[in-house]
Amino acid sequence: MNIALDTLARQPLLADITLEHIPQLDAAPAYRELPAEAGFKRILLPSGHSAIHLTRHAEVQALLLDNRAIRAPCNEEGGPSFLPTITPPELLLNNDIPDHGRLRKVVARDFSPSGVALLRETVEQVTHARIDLLRQQPRGADLFSLVLEQVPSTVDCQLLGIPLADRDYYRPLSHTVQVASDADVPELLRQFWGVYGYLTDLVTGARPSHADGLIQRFVASRDDSEPPLSDKELVGILLGVLIGGDQNILSVLTKAVYVLLAQPALYRSLVDDPQRIPQAVEELLRLLPLGTISTFPRLASSDLDGPWGLIPAGSVIYADAFAANRDPEVFPDPLAIRLGRQDGRHLQFGYGMHNCMGAALARLEITTVLQILVERLPDLRLDIPAHEVPWVEGIILRRPTRLPVRGFNTP
Ligand code: HEM
């Protein structure tokens, strides 16, 4: 069967499209299910720990809001984790109250919706420039490498104030870090410390960065924190920006575009009504986690009362935002992709004190790129069947690696 007929044969009506019509989208879970115990669903984490598995939206939201469910002990050698290694304690995600608040305050303004709005023009410029380039390519050109991959990485360099040329060095490292494979842990650590060392050089001034970028601004205002921020703390904060501001946005942006192109009626609906894009982005975000996990485990520092009943002190808990985002009590017909859905709040960016610091930036970039794509490339289509699109599988990074397309040459 040729591609056009193959695609046609699989196309449901817009209103009937569900996740089941999008090949390869959901990963196999990163945990193994265990028998329920004392009224709680249980899972086995890759670290070998048994964890309480919260899947209902109300429970996941309440757990993520509960500061007695702490992170630091999960980042100790031998602690409960999805990752094959521990990470530096200075990372925001590894901190609990009160230290977390002191570190998080540093990024609050730049990552607020009004703070990231200053980057909109850059997002637009790079997206337009890369689409111009795509237009000069023959059918089958790769939308991923030619357009999508360029946007978050360019914006992130401008935000941080680092030279674009540095991308060739640190991006392969940050890619490996987010894939977080347990196949070769010494190599994973080597690459992690490579990107960590790169950022340390920028913070200490051993490598050049622009005066108006976040790195130099955060260094210059380190004494505003009480006590002043150490180099390690600055690196811990900025590592989230260097990696998350690039790889995280790219993963969800790529999957969002993939979903729309895998079922062309979805893409067409946004071409016909681009006003719906911000709402459509929320529905896509609801369905698209970064990788194979959606949050990191917590440890109950005391007995936790809540909508789940009573979780005993010392329990490991996985608040599964992926499952919560498909809770039929909050999202009726949860597997249906309804780009105009107006149900409850999804938890794809987490909730509570560790809620994603880059949420506003991710929303800005994904929305802007989609707006430009549908406006300039209304006839865009995948050039291979969706089930043949290649993917990279990782713990925090899981996405298509290529999106060969056609229908982009019309002016
Ligand atoms: C669509 C893209 C993104 C998704 C789906 C996402 C998802 C998440 C989730 C679920 C959490 C909370 C994890 C937990 O509570 O265990 C989180 C936290 C975090 N994210 Fe994102 N993220 C995205 C983009 C970004 C971007 C763009 C950045 C940086 C610019 C970033 C940096 C961080 C950091 C530093 C934290 C830890 C915050 C804290 O502990 O206070 N992420 N993210």
List the helices and strands and how they pair.
Blueprint: H1 3-9, E1 32-37, E2 40-44, E3 50-54, H2 57-65, E4 69-70, H3 99-107, H4 113-117, H5 120-135, H6 143-148, H7 150-160, H8 167-179, H9 185-204, H10 214-220, H11 231-262, H12 264-272, H13 277-287, E5 298-300, E6 304-306, E7 309-311, E8 316-319, H14 321-324, H15 359-376, E9 381-382, E10 391-392, E11 399-400, E12 405-406
Parallel strand pairs: 3-8
Antiparallel strand pairs: 1-2, 2-3, 4-5, 5-8, 6-7, 9-12, 10-11
Helix pairs in contact: 5-7, 5-15, 7-11, 8-9, 9-11, 11-12, 11-15, 13-15
This protein binds protoporphyrin IX containing FE.
Protoporphyrin IX containing FE binds next to helix 11 and helix 15.
Any overview of this molecule?
- There is one protein chain.
- The chain is α+β, with helices and mostly antiparallel strands.
- The protein has one domain (3-406): Cytochrome p450 (Orthogonal Bundle).
- Helix content is 43%, strand content 9%.
- A 6-stranded mixed sheet has the order 1-2-3-8-5-4. The chain has a two-stranded antiparallel ribbon with strand order 6-7. A two-stranded antiparallel ribbon has the order 9-12.
- It is globular and about 60 Å long.
- The protein binds protoporphyrin IX containing FE (HEM).
- The site of protoporphyrin IX containing FE has 25 residues, from helix 11 and helix 15.
